Amino acid sequence: MVKKISVIGSGAVGSTLAFHLLRLNLKSLSLVDVAGDLAKGVALDLEDTRAFFDFPTLISAGSDFSLIKDSDIIAVTAGVARKEGMSRLDLLKINAKVVKEVSAEIKKHAPAAIVIMVTNPLDIITYIATKETGFSRNRIFGMGSSLDSARLLNLFSQEVSVATSSLEGFVFGLHNNEMVVSAQRLKVRGEALTKNLSPERIKKLQERTAMRGGEIIGYLKNRSAAFAPSLSCVRLIEAIVYDKNEIIPVSVLLNGEYGLKNVCLGVPCLINHKGIEKIIEIELNAQEKEKIKKVEETFKEIAGS
Prior knowledge:
The structure is a single chain. The protein has 305 residues and is an alpha/beta fold. It is 43% helix and 19% strand. The strands form 3 sheets. Strands 3-2-1-4-5-6 form a 6-stranded parallel β-sheet, with helices on both faces. A 3-stranded antiparallel β-sheet has the order 7-8-9, with helices on one face. Strands 10-11-12 form a 3-stranded antiparallel β-sheet, with helices on both faces. Helix 1 packs across helix 9 and helix 6 crosses helix 9. It is globular and about 50 Å long. The protein starts with a strand and ends with a helix. The mean pLDDT is 92.
């Protein structure tokens, strides 16, 4: 039974995530941020919603990582958000240091926790956290492809004027503009997308999905998306808390699956109270195999830089 969840990082994503977690009626929710006053301010604001939601959760906050002690689940949103004009490599140089420090604290105070990484660049950061904590890959993974899949379904729904509940589709690979958005995975009420959209419109849908994060940053300028990323993380947490056995694409360390080794990429996984119960290996077509091989090369090039 999940009694305590901690959120490391109290910026837009972390605070929005914490707000949504209140409806889980947890025993304890801890917020940690190196700017301790930020976490404390968010916690007080969250507490003041008690009269509306009547939740029993005890909320604690500050800069001391001992607050995460005995957490069942930890979501890591700490680090700098990508801003307009910033490359993912620029972001990595900053956030890699942050996540190494956070990983050491998690290993020290919550060695049995399931850890969900949200910090970008997501896949490389997940790889770093997996190596630094030494945790088994079933209980440390990245949120990335679940967010990309949600974005795809939103844009897909608008293209065909059909509710997302009647659509099928998911994104896998890296959480960047090289993600794999395969047309053959997209279906409308069970029918292939090619029966509903022209090749030109399908290509536009694929391209817009891949560039969605950058599109949002282009408007927000000095911050990035928060609502959809936080809800993508909530979905993963709920799958763990309620032992849902739900198949969701997440970034995980691969050890031979899909012919890849020692890289973290978004792939479909069965999520339950254990974290990742199983990595689902779908059969890839020739085009998908080619794309995912290029993704592996990109990952190793960035990780080694």
